[in-house]
């Protein structure tokens, strides 16, 4: 533990209220089911069958220039695009690392809120890390986003558009490695995904709906992270969508986790891990345990032993531990663990039969941790 006194933990509500009086994001094709898209056009006096043509341009052809939508009649094209494809976000900055294969984009939403997404290209796959909220209300003290508080939830379409923007960049050969496709999506950007449950599940459905109604990717390529909103974890298990659950645990004991992840004062380590194990039992999907390694805070060898005990108490083979070298926030007392302490942590977990890896630290030089680039603005 740090020798600095910790602020007393505060209980957090399950879903934090957004500020009153905010305008909602523009309604977009990705917010709607295929039937709702058709109904909207009919209500506007436009042919309903055009909805599928517009969806084909958006999800399959990855077209964002109306002039290229030549199968739409010129007299109706502007109305169709205005109805289903309003502008959602504007790129403010794009920073590159790893010879251009890691690209972080800072977006300004329609109301001025700032969010971030990261495209990471690896041999054989492309991963998009997306935000689900502008800011975050979970107040984890080591996280850049948590320090800024919650501004608002993002809409389903705003979440989807982050992925489609990356897909367009790949399709246009703007990322080194040739044309490609987004294979994996991780909800590990700004925000607590399960605190914006409806929009996040809606985005997952749009991204996995078969083309041209959606992007047509496999749900098994999607990971949804959470700090441990237990009722929402159970609700996600009921959705019938085989996404991977990532539990941001960061400590195996309540005393420390109350400080690092304040929602733990409402849902204890035991309750949270039980919910994660139930997710595994219901879906058959192995759970990822995310654990940010913080020097002198949570990286002691005895805590590795305790973490192994907590996880193995529920059974073997149901989790994979992902140790994350902390992305340090300037001015914060939380710093990255020494390599030798991280290596010992790995050794102790593996000795107890727990699959463990150390996350690849991509994009350090471009502030790739969620919230760092937005905070700099």
Automatic annotation (TrEMBL):
Pfam families: Radical_SAM, RlmN_N. It is an enzyme of class 2 (transferase). It catalyses: adenosine(2503) in 23S rRNA + 2 reduced [2Fe-2S]-[ferredoxin] + 2 S-adenosyl-L-methionine = 2-methyladenosine(2503) in 23S rRNA + 5'-deoxyadenosine + L-methionine + 2 oxidized [2Fe-2S]-[ferredoxin] + S-adenosyl-L-homocysteine; adenosine(37) in tRNA + 2 reduced [2Fe-2S]-[ferredoxin] + 2 S-adenosyl-L-methionine = 2-methyladenosine(37) in tRNA + 5'-deoxyadenosine + L-methionine + 2 oxidized [2Fe-2S]-[ferredoxin] + S-adenosyl-L-homocysteine. Its main location: cytoplasm. Its EC number is 2.1.1.192. The keyword Methyltransferase applies. Binds 1 [4Fe-4S] cluster. The cluster is coordinated with 3 cysteines and an exchangeable S-adenosyl-L-methionine. CDD domains: Radical_SAM (cd01335). The active site is at residues 116, 370. InterPro entries: Aldolase_TIM (IPR013785), Elp3/MiaA/NifB-like_rSAM (IPR006638), Methyltransferase_A (IPR040072), RlmN_N (IPR048641), RNA_MTrfase_RlmN (IPR027492), rRNA_lsu_MTrfase_RlmN/Cfr (IPR004383), rSAM (IPR007197), rSAM_sf (IPR058240). [4Fe-4S] cluster binds at residues 136, 140, 143. It comes from the Bacteria. Residues 1-11 have a biased composition (Pro residues). SUPFAM superfamilies: Radical SAM enzymes. It is found in: Cytoplasm. Specifically methylates position 2 of adenine 2503 in 23S rRNA and position 2 of adenine 37 in tRNAs. Reaction proceeds by a ping-pong mechanism involving intermediate methylation of a conserved cysteine residue. Belongs to the radical SAM superfamily. RlmN family. This is Probable dual-specificity RNA methyltransferase RlmN. It comes from Nocardioides humi. The lineage of its organism: Bacteria, Bacillati, Actinomycetota, Actinomycetes, Propionibacteriales.
